[in-house]
Amino acid sequence: MALEEKVFARLGELGAATVYEAHGQKGAIDPAIKPLDPTSVLAGRAVTVKLDPADNWFIHVGLMHAGPGDVLVVDIGGYTDAGPWGDVLTLAAQERGVAGLVIDGAVRDSRDIVESGFPVFTRGVCIRRTTKRQIGAINVPVTIGGIEVVPKDIIVGDADGLVRVPGVEGQAALKSAEAREAKEIGQREQLRQGASTLDLLGLSWPESIARLGSET
Questions:
Q1: What is the tally of structural domains in the chain?
Q2: Domain hosting residue 32, numbered range
Q3: Is 167 annotated in some ligand binding site?
Q4: This model's pTM is above 0.85
Q5: Is 128 annotated as a binding residue?
Q6: How much is the average pLDDT of 125-146?
Q7: Are residues 33 and 140 in the same domain?
Q8: What's the pLDDT tens digit per position in 67-80?
Q9: Is position 89 annotated in a ligand binding site?
């Protein structure tokens, strides 16, 4: 496994919440974009697609730019009254080794997608058809759930949500997430030994009150 793929895999294991908290509490994507299957785990580099509402021509084009380790990130401006992605595109993506889909829009054939095991994070589900007439854009900056994503950014997602990490910060994000995970493992052990969460967070009475008083 290549180093980059190992970074993606480990970030996925650590989870979106840990990556977000550890790496500066930035890049959290609108929680309204959810996994179809809450057991899905997603981590990879962004291949971005911008579509007009109710048209999916360029989602097919974008898929041809994606491969192993890539996450197709599709900006439809939050439009959910048509489903430009379904079971056929899911199979095509799996055959290319694509890591998953994040779409600020809707999908269809949701049951088949879940059964396929392909990670899909979407704002909605809609059976209405799309056209194939409007020219979109591939590998340009897009906005997904209020967060700008550029090509080769890292996307991490699971049941807790989605977070974007700038592509050049992957190793740093992994290092900080590993450190946070190690800290939390230590905290869990202290809890098993009788400590309280107030103790662990330095919020015990009356010390925390005294500290707050000194800060006013």
A1: 2
A2: 3-167
A3: no
A4: yes
A5: no
A6: 96
A7: yes
A8: 999 999 999 999 99
A9: yes
